[in-house]
Amino acid sequence: MVQAQPPVTVSTPLRSAPPWQPVAVALIVLGTVWFLSFTLPLFIPRIFDPTIAPVRVLHGGFGILALVTAVLQILPGIRRRYPRFHRWNGRVYLVGGVLPSALLLVAVLFALRNPQNTADFFWCVVWLVVSGIAWRAVRQRDYAKHRRYMAYSVAITLVAVTNAGLVVVAPQISAVVSPPVLYDALHWFPWVTHLAIAHWLVTHYGATPYPARRRQIAEASTVPA
Predict the structure, then answer these.
(1) Contact 65, 160 (CB under 8 A)
(2) pLDDT value at position 2?
(3) What is the rounded distance in angstroms from the CA atom of residue 167 to the CA atom of residue 187?
(4) What pLDDT was estimated at residue 154?
(5) CB < 8 Å & 24+ apart, contacts of 29-37
(6) C-alpha triplet 158, 163, 169: angle, nearest 5°
């Protein structure tokens, strides 16, 4: 007597990728290119300026590396076609970008004698926590959790682009908003908003990660008809 095989349970994603994903990725890439064209001409001379604290230069350099590698991580074509590059780029992003940049951000607050800037302090703490969870999840091959927390990490990394845009428009806003309120808003609003958007995305578009999807297809194909 042949025993019936237990049914294979395949997790169903919440939704497929949003139809506007290519547009969002294109805007992120364009925003990053604009940020680099806007920031690098200002940043490079600071490397050779002895009046600038080295900790600020290092924080900026590692932050730029984190931003560039973060954008490479979210490009769907790279994830699908070059998984090896995706893995190594992710290591550079976490170890060479996020970790030193976030730790140096705390040092920058003290170098500027402004340790009471709680917005930036919590920003770097959350950045480190979600990035660490993403790293641990991928080491445990929990790809769904890894992608969820990497979405949070990349969202916080992209705050640099938003901050640069707000700096450009801040003089116009200051005409109608008091400086103290504007100062607090510029430090809290970007990273909190980015984190909220990322949470909404991973909640509504929880597609199965590629390695998990391949395993499920392989398991389903072994089930006898």
Answers:
(1) no
(2) 45
(3) 11
(4) 95
(5) 29/71, 29/75, 31/158, 31/161, 31/165, 32/67, 32/68, 32/71, 32/158, 32/161, 34/161, 35/67, 35/160, 35/161, 35/164, 36/64, 36/68
(6) 140
DSSP state of 141: T
pLDDT confidence of residue 187:
78
pLDDT computed for residue 135 by the predictor: 95
Q: Judge whether 144 and 209 are in contact, CB under 8 Å.
A: yes
Q: Specify the DSSP element, H or E, that contains 69.
A: helix 54-74
pLDDT mean by block of 10 residues, the chain; 225 residues? 45 58 90 92 89 86 95 88 92 94 80 64 90 94 92 94 82 70 77 92 68 48 50
Please report, for residues 97, 120, 176, 203, the alpha-carbon distance to residue 75 in angstroms, rounded to integers and kept in the order given. Answer: 18, 28, 39, 20
Q: Which of 47, 40, 42 is nearest to 68 (CA)?
A: 40
* Total-model pTM: 0.78
The residues, any chain, with a CB within 8 Å of residue 142's CB and separated by 6 or more, are none
Eight-class DSSP state of 222 = T
pLDDT of 14: 47
**Spatial distance between the Cα atoms of 163 and 147, rounded to a whole number of angstroms:** 24
For residue 163, what are the contacts with CB-CB under 8 A and spacing of at least 6?
A: 186, 190
Distance from C-alpha of 199 to C-alpha of 153, rounded to nearest angstrom: 11
Q: Which residues of 174-189 are buried (b: 16+ CB within 10 A; e: fewer)?
A: eeeeeeeeeeeebbee
Half-sphere exposure of 60 (CA within 13 A, CB side): 18
